[in-house]
Specification:
With 811 residues, this protein is of the alpha/beta class. It folds into 4 domains: 2-42 and 125-225, Carbamate kinase, CATH 3.40.1160.10; 305-456, VC0802-like (2-Layer Sandwich); 462-606, NAD(P)-binding Rossmann-like Domain (Rossmann fold), CATH 3.40.50.720; 613-793, Dihydrodipicolinate Reductase, domain 2, CATH 3.30.360.10. 41% of the residues lie in helices and 21% in strands. The chain has 28 helices and 29 strands. The protein has an 8-stranded mixed β-sheet, with helices on both faces. Helix 3 runs antiparallel to helix 4 (82-109). The longest helix has 28 residues, at 82-109. The two termini are 54 Å apart. The protein binds 1,4-dihydronicotinamide adenine dinucleotide and the ligand N[C@@H](CC=O)C(=O)O. The site of 1,4-dihydronicotinamide adenine dinucleotide has 32 residues, from helix 15, helix 18 and helix 28. 1,4-dihydronicotinamide adenine dinucleotide (NAI) binds at residues 469-475, 503-505, 530, 532, 552-555, 557-558, 575-577, 605, 609, 636, 662-663, 665-666, 793-795, 798. Residues 398-473 form the ACT domain.
């Protein structure tokens, strides 16, 4: 004997029912078969709706009944040969009249009892099963009303089956007939008074399990519209994987926690009899689906799936008066039970100072009232605080038989969530160690499940979601490098970098599946007008795991939003130097936020572009070294200018060349004034542990003050006017056989920048093109400094430094 159950979507219309017929025909070749069917998809809702409308005195119920009748009559006409249609049509018509009569009564009384509701709801399965039996008449199908076989109590809408009587009735009936194929309605049963009852929404699965268990079936097949159970809800996790094999216990845990593929009570009866349950897809019958059995082979992973339940409220009862007093929790649970409030999760700290339970959001008010009433005396006398109710939460659970006795699973789970800023509000784990349950904000569910899926299942790659501000010189090169490396990173580092948001000063663009970097310019141009706050809000609201905000602007305002991002665990990578060279307080705050919210705040390119200056300094510090002195040339622009200026070509033209080659700041006056170098030496001093501000740094500027007045065009014009000044600077140094270098120094708490004459004996003398050099004098490098030298400006090298920071943030 085998039992096949088909859900509402599988029998939603004539086309689908014909697919079902094909599947049953094949099955019939193997064994005697019981087919359990749900109502035509959506019909149960329509039936309940008509009852509710009638009870509310709304005559619209007649229209809803018409829709129901129409759907069934049409299905009969499409499925049953014309010669045999009339008896089936007339049977359907009679049932529809019965529903109408009941609803008319409800309308007149203005009352819908639980009993009547079950009577109305039952017609869905009655009519679908009758229709399908008629369709399979040619295959010898026998229609049997399950209400004659399944006995329940009178708890309408969620009746409990009286198993021994039911088993006996089913066994007797099937022993008394010789037919091979039976079609029975799921979901419905009857009580001792022969009144119709129902087994709860999803109860057709349960009906099938009851038949399978009573008949000692060899197999129970649950045919639905998905190809089995998955590692996570595929609507939330695009990379969710099918689970070909899973144990009864795991299936129950996953189903309880929201994987709606199978109705949870279904497992119990078949598990007792060791009957395998095969979840299959009606619309893809060749797909393997999920086979649920007692013993399932290890799949190398300690967890089988991730499940969630939304709309959870946490109730917390706290108070010193609870400690050491037996009976508090008993009273709490009795109070909830008295109002039929189901408890989804319980946690109690060993201090006994608080008990916390999770229930459905919809029951929160009722729960608050009954608990506050129950503990009124204790609350008034201050022994217990009034109940704390926190709504809009969700449960996220890891499920797997193999978690048992494997240390590290919960560490991995909470570590991954913590790194992504998912705050865990409560935790529960039973001693079966089959599930670890956490409660998180409803708004974090999607992120939490994806983070966990990536951590436990996605050996293929890790997704990193970028929000990129700035598409100029450096930004443009960065985008090109990201595009060029996408494939390599996916294949070699298992990283999938996606640019989800992109902005320049005029436009912004978002694409959850990632912006196509081959056509970003056109796409961004067609984007929406840029609003910095909206860009930040989007990055926060999307709440994607492994999010990184990349600031490739030179903009002060952009630098002010880092705190909003870090506090949402979004890492920040910046080549913009404004944040790190603003007040020490803000710089410190950003570092603290990054630590607090497990995010990265990386700005390697703030000094020396792509050179490993800040990283090296941090390595020295982390390993216990102390930086005593720094001597450096930190301006690519100024080094280029002084390397290329000898009084022949005008100074202004050399500066322009530096700008055209992409070495200067967007505003070149920042380079020429020495401000850019001040920022850099201050950042190095701060990273060395010094609390410096810009005012603390002396700057011996070589620029005539007149050059710094007006616009950038005025700046160039005035530099041309001041050519004699620059010639004199050059000539003086050349006369001494020296070179002009704009040098930055930090020495035991003091920092300075300025133009110096550097002789051939000096460490800074042999420095060409746009190079930078940094000399670290430390406790471990007291005489011969640690030297970092190389190209210190240019869009390509800067972009690669930003890229490297992104990869560091990703890890
Ligand atoms: N060029 C170099 O060698 C190095 C540059 N840097 C830094 O790189 C940064 C970028 O420099 P470039 O690419 O040369 O500048 P750029 O002027 O070519 O590009 C700046 C980009 O930022 C965008 N932007 C400006 N304000 C914005 C806002 N409020 N919101 C969104 N986008 C905005 C602009 O539209 C433009 O796309 C600067 O902070 C610079 O200090 C750092 C190290 C070396
Ligand atoms: N404008 C800067 C670029 C890097 O920060 C420089 O010239 O060094």
């Amino acid at each position: 004997m085998q039992v096949l159950k088909f859900g509402g979507s599988s029998v939603a219309n004539a086309v689908n029912i014909n697919k079902v017929v094909g599947i049953v025909q094949e099955a019939l070749k193997k064994d005697r078969t019981v087919v359990v069917v749900s109502a035509l998809g959506g019909v149960t809702d329509l039936l309940l709706q008509s009852g509710a409308l009638a009870a509310a005195g709304d005559e619209q119920y007649k229209n809803v009944l018409q829709v129901i009748e129409q759907r069934h009559l049409e299905a009969v006409k499409a499925l049953i040969p014309v010669a045999k249609q009339s008896s089936v049509l007339s049977w359907m018509k009679q049932r529809c009249n019965e529903i109408e009569d009941i609803c008319n009564g409800v309308f007149l009384l203005g009352e819908l009892s639980a009993r009547t509701k079950d009577r109305i709801a039952a017609f869905g399965e009655l009519m679908s099963s009758h229709l399908i039996a008629a369709r399979m008449n040619e295959h010898g199908a026998v229609w049997k009303d399950s209400r004659e076989l399944i006995l329940t109590d009178s708890n309408y809408s969620n009746a409990a089956v009286v198993r021994d009587v039911t088993d006996h009735a089913i066994q007797q009936y099937f022993a008394s007939v010789n037919d091979q194929l039976f079609v029975v309605p799921g979901f419905i049963a009857s009580n001792a008074e022969r009144q119709t009852t129902t087994l709860g929404r999803g109860g057709s699965d349960y009906t099938a399990a009851i038949f399978a268990a009573a008949l000692d079936a060899g197999l129970l097949e649950i045919w639905t519209d998905v190809s089995g159970m998955m590692t996570a809800d595929p609507r939330l996790v695009p990379h969710a994987k099918a689970l070909p094999h899973i144990s009864y216990q795991e299936a129950m845990e996953l189903s309880h926690f929201g994987a709606k593929v199978i109705y949870p009570p279904t497992i119990q009866p078949v598990m007792k009899k060791n009957i395998p349950v095969w979840v299959k897809n009606t619309f893809d019958p060749d797909a393997y689906g999920t086979l649920i059995e007692r013993e399932v082979m290890l799949n190398g992973n300690h967890i089988r799936g991730i499940a969630s339940i939304n709309k959870i409220t946490l109730l917390s009862l706290e108070g010193g008066g609870m400690v050491g007093i037996p009976g508090f929790s008993k009273r709490l649970f009795e109070a909830l039970a008295s109002e039929q409030i189901n408890v989804i999760l319980i946690t109690q700290s060993s201090s006994e100072h608080s008990i916390c339970v999770g229930i459905e959001d919809a029951l929160a008010e009722k729960a608050k009232q009954v608990i506050d009433d129950t503990f009124r005396f204790e609350i008034q006398s201050g022994k217990v605080d009034p109940l704390v109710v926190e709504k809009d939460l969700a449960v996220v659970a890891l499920v797997g038989d193999n978690m048992k006795s494997h240390p590290g699973v919960s560490g991995k789970m909470f570590g991954a969530m913590g790194r992504n800023g998912v705050n865990v509000r409560a935790i529960a784990q039973g001693s079966s160690e089959r599930n670890i349950t956490s409660v998180v904000a409803a708004s974090d569910v999607r992120k939490a499940i994806n983070v966990l899926h990536e951590e436990f299942f996605e050996t293929t790659y890790k997704q990193v979601n970028l929000f990129l501000a700035g598409t100029g010189n450096v930004g443009g090169k960065l985008i090109a490098q990201l595009q060029q490396q996408q494939k390599y990173l996916q294949e070699n580092l298992r990283l999938q970098l996606r640019v989800i948001g992109m902005a320049n000063s005029r436009k912004m663009l978002f694409k959850e599946e990632g912006i196509d970097l081959a056509n970003w310019k056109e796409a961004l141009e067609a984007g929406e007008p840029m609003s910095l706050q909206q860009f930040v809000d989007q990055a926060r609201a999307r709440n994607l795991r492994n999010s990184v905000f990349v600031d490739v602007t030179a903009n002060g305002e952009v630098a002010t939003v880092y705190d909003q991002l870090l506090s949402k665990s979004i890492s920040v990578v910046a080549c913009n130097k404004v944040a790190c060279s603003s007040s020490f307080e803000y710089y410190r705050k950003l570092k603290d936020l990054a630590r607090e919210f497990n995010a990265s705040f990386l700005f390697e390119t703030n000094v020396g572009a792509g050179l490993p200056v800040i990283g090296t300094l941090n390595d020295l510090k982390r390993t216990g070294d102390v930086v005593n002195r720094i001597e450096a040339v930190l301006s690519g622009t100024l080094n280029f200018v002084f390397n290329n200026y000898n009084g022949e070509k005008p100074f202004a033209e050399v500066v322009k060349q530096a700008q055209d080659e992409g070495y200067t700041e967007p505003d070149p006056r920042l380079d020429l004034s020495g401000t850019d170098v001040m920022r850099k030496i201050m950042i190095l001093a701060r990273e060395s542990g010094e609390q410096l501000e810009m005012e603390d740094i002396s700057n011996e500027s070589f620029m005539p003050a007149s050059c710094m007045e007006g616009s950038v065009a005025d700046f160039y014009k005035e530099m041309a006017n001041q050519e004699a000044h620059f010639k004199a600077l050059y000539a003086k140094a050349a006369k001494e056989g020296k070179k002009l270098k704009f040098v930055a120094s930090y020495d035991n708490g003091r920092a300075a920048v300025g133009l110096q004459h550097i002789g051939p004996e000096h460490n800074l003398y042999h420095l060409y093109g746009k190079d930078n050099v940094v000399l670290f004098y430390t406790n471990r490098y007291p005489d011969q400094p640690m030297v970092i030298k190389g190209a210190g400006a240019g869009a390509e090298v800067t972009a690669s430094g930003v890229f490297a920071d992104i990869l560091r943030a990703a890890h």
